[in-house]
């Protein structure tokens, strides 16, 4: 059962990371690219698309597809929400219905810029998200004890 738990955790991590697939530009030979980052893959439409795909795939092999649909939605949505809170340029949350960018930055001192490079970008964004998510997780954990 422990092995199953680790598989589920890995699956959740992969799903939560999926919106950043737009960092890699296929047109440039699958290299790191800032041009299209925080585009359509950081939207509620993408969340719905991924949860639908997961539901169909899981539904073929298992009966509990509703749980996996909810789990996949939460995983992808958590990434979108975290980026919404730390991204200065905003996200197209309602894509494909709208390309308007919504900005809800928390005012953290870290900023993103193309000059940072990929490793610095990942470290800084992970630090921001750890601070925000860590606080939320501590509150939830204390209430559950």
Automatic annotation (TrEMBL):
Keyword entries, A-Z: Membrane, Transmembrane, Transmembrane helix
Lineage top rank: taxon: Bacteria
InterPro entries per record: YdjM-like
Annotated transmembrane regions: 43-61, 68-86, 118-141
Stored Pfam families: YdjM
UniProt name for this protein: Metal-dependent hydrolase
Species, as recorded: Candidatus Desantisbacteria bacterium CG_4_10_14_3_um_filter_40_18
Source lineage: Bacteria, Candidatus Desantisiibacteriota
